[in-house]
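Help wanted!
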Amino acid sequence: MVTDEQLSAIKGAKVLMVGAGGIGCELLKTLALSGFQDIHIIDMDTIEVSNLNRQFLFRQSHVGQSKAKVARDAILKVRPNINITPYHANVKDPDFNVDFFKEFSVVLNGLDNLDARRHVNRLCLAAGVPLVESGTTGFLGQVTVHVKGKTECYECQPKPAPKTYPVCTITSTPSKFVHCIVWAKDLLFAKLFGDKNQENDLNVRSTDSSGSSEHVEDVFEWKKDEDIEAYGKRVYDHVFGYNIEVALSNEDSWKNRNKPRPIYIKDVALTEVTQQNGDPDKTSVSGDPLSVSAMTILGLKNPQDVWGLAENSKVFLEALKLFFLKRAKEIGNLSFDKDDQLAVEFVTAAANIRAASFGIPLHSLFEAKGIAGNIVHAVATTNAIIAGLIVIEAIKVLQNNEKNYRMTYCLEHPARKMLLMPVEPFEPNKSCYVCSETPLWLEINTKRSKLRDLVEKIVKAKLGMNLPLIMHGSALLYEVGDDLEEDMVANYTANLEKVLAELPSPVTGGTILTVEDLQQELTCNINIKHREEFDEEKEPDGMVLSGWTQPVVSKNGDMSKENGASTSNTSQAVSVEAEEDDDIEMLPAVGAPAGKKRKLSEDSNFAGSDLPSVVDDSEAIAMLDENGERKKKRVQ
Amino acid sequence: MDGEELTEQETALYDRQIRVWGVDAQRRLSKSHVLVSGLNGTAVEFCKNIILAGVGSLTLNDDRLVSDELLSANFLVDQNISSEKPLAELCCDSLKDFNPMVRVLVQKGDLSSFGVDFFEKFDAVVVSCCSLKAKKLINEKCRKSSKRVAFYAVDCRDSCGEIFVDLQDYIYSKKKVDEMEECRLQYPSFEEAIAVPWKSLPRRLSKLYFAMRVIEIFESQNGRNPGQTSAADLPVVLNLRKELCETQSLSESQVPDTLVERLLAGTREFPPVCAIIGGILGQEVIKAISGKGDPLKNFFYFDAMDGKGVIEDLSPENK
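Answered by r_m:
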């Protein structure tokens, strides 16, 4: 039941929904039933089979079509008298500028990635439009309200960053199955089937042994008249046998670790699993190249089964062969895709063989696919609940009912009897570079680093800018856009390759740079501090940005708290990035900065920062127990 | 576990949720049978959730003919439709499309006239906007079945919702650190739960509990259908509250006038609350069928005014 005032606010509202996926379908339905008359939806995705278990507006026959458009049509069938405007497009497209955002009374996010969330946050701030943000994983979810000047913006608090692993853990000393997956996917798969020109650390260890470099160069090449089976076995022996022997020769690595076991194809009893009941002629379920399957040929049916070393070795060789024989055209351009059956089979098998070598428990294809594809658990019920909560907040926002704004957590286990826990929103963080005008500091070697390094590693990667412009005083150093003169483009391209101190308007210690994104209407100043040396391990970027909220990097399920620090603790090279096209509903972490308490909406003995912190992490999540204390919980 | 594997089609469709609750749970779900009676907005939300989850069959019971009011929070049927078909049939036609692997059926008739053997066919029975008398009766029949039939009663008034759960004697496994632990919960029936003297209940119990009971009794004493109330009933209901509070030795402040008035006047469903209550209820039924996860015991309350979703345990032994 809604009051007349609420109903007139609802009827007069023009709402922008970003995302028509898991949360989006539920949200559109609840908005339509609640009486909203003018709803716009942006979603760049098309419908996939794995969406159908929760994105209830979509059917099998819609697979491949625009989510935004199909969602609109489905709702109009039951509520024909409302206006729904779909955009099958990326919210980062320049058409969706500040003027576009200004037309809306409120923006509701049901997004699947951090990047787009940050982008929408900036546009909402620039346009002065309130934002209701949301996210779910499994049974957990949350809804937050962001109103400029009233509550914190989406970027006032640190966000979980994609999990990353040190290079040497991946290349030489894996201790968990996920390390083997990253190796199989980002190194081996990329080396064999991806862009040959890309840097690849697959052989990082073997370069140490003298005289073997030539051997290394050749090993991954399929020689002209070489039998494909022989080639597969050669690759197998090299990566699982020879490379392990090389690694073993570095004795220092194994002082405190269990030594890995080199595995050669001749030692694996392949005969056990030959052609049980598989059909050699049936290489795929349909004619679709993405369904070519080594499993099918080998008669392995259940993706939930954990294969032994012999089965994995068979799958490895068979998958490699199928790539070269059935999908030869794609070789050199392939990158891992969780919906590519053969790629998943290859990566599963390779990761398992490596796991066997290092004494790590083996996993099923189903599990391996989840890890490799960074697939986030998702159920319909949580999305429905979260969508209901979004609409409740949206109605408050439309009525400027500030004192009743809440952020709400949906929990798996009750905390203080609550499954749905409302919390008063925070005030804006005064040192947030996005919603306040706090300058940033950048330590950088101005005599060695190029403008390109600054643009890629800081402006794009850290500050999340889409179309940046860089100024030193009134001198333009760099700009992106469609309407630039040719000579300017040439100028900027030349600048990119210049060392900072040698730019037409030199950037040195003490320089203040202005960085702007015209689409996001975000401007920030960066104070440059010259520094000669950087620690390669701890500061791999060769520069350190501070005054910027560092994403929270979760390790072993511990939530590392934001400490207003630098880029220095992201010693990483290989990261597990979320697949853009999936329905990953990432949750912002909730960690209160020191000295600031998060209040529950009622009197409570809840310690300020002990609120549920939910990380997009399949291994372990920090949750609350009955007494409001944080404890680690393992999730299957 | 049950010797049968999921089909390729099931594995593909249910991929994301199998990653939440596992293959065994999915297998149990696909063999389960659920009955829903009273297809208001909350129940329809529940139906959607349970069909997407992949139960074996869902049986719908609601013989009412459609009206504008009845469809206000129903996303399955065009609100402007005029049809001679009963609500359950219209909903069934639409729900069938949600998941081709779930059988959706219609059962006509008055549930409280059906015998134990009827309820025995189901793993879970959900009644929505159901009278006090019918709730007790159906709950008892579920309890008399030879196998355990989980019973749920759900009610939404204004922007508030209530869920009651009876899993009888319920054993489930729970993961503690690295090993599975067996847990056991004893549930009272609806009749037993509401018979717990108010005086003995915890002081901070949700005020919604009392308000819901007062209105439920008002409806049953005055021959009203569930939800058939208005603000005009307030004086009579406040008198009833006074009587009940005196008999039960409870301060009337535990059942505030404003809350009672809201619940009486707010007869039009609030779709966000339907989504929330239907979502929690869906999750609970999935837990009970799959035997995974801590089920709630035994009442759940949500009020959009304060935004809290609270579990209350009202059991005779829980003094």
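OP: Thanks! One thing I noticed: DSSP finds eleven helices and ten strands in chain B.
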